[in-house]
Amino acid sequence: MSGTHSMLPVANHDETAEQLFVRDLKGYIAGEIEPFESAAADALDPGAGHNDRAAETYARLRELSGFSGYLGLRRAAQDLLWDCVGVSVGRQADSLASEAASIELLGSLTLDPDMVQPAYLEDRDVHLMPGGYAHDRGDVTQGALMDRGGAVYMLGRNGGFLNDGRGWTLASHLLARWPDMQPASLIELGCGVGASAVPLARTFPDSDVYGLDVGGSVLRYAQARASALGVAVHFVQGDAEHAPFPDASFDCVCSSVMLHETSPDALGAIMAESLRLLKPGGIVAHLEVPQRYDSVPLWTQIRGEIELDYNNEPNWRSAISADYENLLRAAGFVDVMAGYQDAVGEAVPANNGFGTESKGVFRSWFVASGRKPQ
After folding, report:
1. What are the distances in angstroms from CA 310 to CA 73, 124, 305, 367?
2. Fewer Cβ close by (within 10 Å): the C or N end of the chain?
3. What Cα–Cα distance (Å) separates residue 248 from each residue in 75, 150, 233, 294?
4. Can you give the C-alpha Rg of the chain in angstroms?
5. Taking a C-beta distance cutoff of 8 angstroms, is the pair 94, 144 a contact?
6. pLDDT digit string, tens, across residues 124-168
């Protein structure tokens, strides 16, 4: 996997071997075992006309010992990922702190000591990442865990260790729909370690770019990470449903694979908050996984149920079932479109790459976008 920066935890020989093993194990489960589970699902499918084929088939599958073995192996592989990455990050806690202290920090960092976590994040560790996004020991280690673990989790398919492919894709979408846009201010909701905020800032170098997230450690790391890459981003701790900014603060509001980690009620609230944060004529763009529940095969629907039960994905099914065009229009947006943006490694204004057909996971991303009326 290519691309790095000085804040990224460095795995030694044994840690590298462990992380590569986890990567290959997860690839083996997906490529060699899941086809058999998919075939079993098709064989147990109650057929068209059933109220919820996926839920019924999932329940039948769970009665099979072989399927239980698959679920256990899948869960164990995810736990093993965080275990081996966590040991590596823990070994480097002091050196990461020293590196963060030595970097000439760019942008800014605003933390909220009274931050209250949304319930949908507080009651579970999303992706099974120990401590979730909010765990904070007053250092950068949770952000380092998220950064290194996220790259391994994605198997290097989202921009290698920089994990920035979605950010470039989001930037490309903005330029595809509004090629002349030059936002003076932009905010990414749910920015995590800033993997998408950095390419957005590079695409719009004259913009004041902000990143909002719930975790203090994650944001400390994000500022050091962006600064190590030579990019200034203003990181702020807060909740995307109640962002700590005045009305009409930004020219562009966006998010990258955040919505499926919220809740059904939060989806509409975040669209309304996006409108509030935007200046008249401002642009909104929310990027999500390139799957829509009604159009994917039965097994993909079942995998969504598995994500909820065995990977702590709190809002997977609701997020890929939501009608984002109507949600944006209901919030008050105009010029609304939803579709699939080609995945890219850098923003390419001349390449539209936006259409109604998904090219598959990691080859395209679902994006819903629109404009606040003047």
Report:
1. 11, 11, 9, 26
2. C
3. 43, 33, 19, 36
4. 20
5. no
6. 899 999 999 999 999 999 999 999 998 888 767 777 889 899 999
Tell me the mean pLDDT in the region 73-95: 96
End-to-end C-alpha distance for the chain, whole angstroms: 44
Look up residue 57 and give its two tokens. Answer: 């088939």
> Could you count the other beta carbons within 10 Å of the beta carbon of residue 131?
17
Q: Which of 114, 117, 116, 22 is nearest to 73 (CA)?
A: 22
Query: What separation in angstroms does the CA of 30 have from each of 71, 83, 154, 195, 348?
Result: 12, 20, 13, 25, 32
Specify burial of residue 324 (Cβ count, 10 A radius: 0-12, 13-18, 19+): buried
CB 189, CB 240: distance < 8 Å = yes
Distance CA 13, CA 25 (A): 18
Task: Name the token pair of 266.
Answer: 């939060």
User: How many Cβ atoms are within 10 Å of 95's Cβ, its own excluded?
Assistant: 11
Report the C-alpha gap between 185 and 133 in whole angstroms.
25
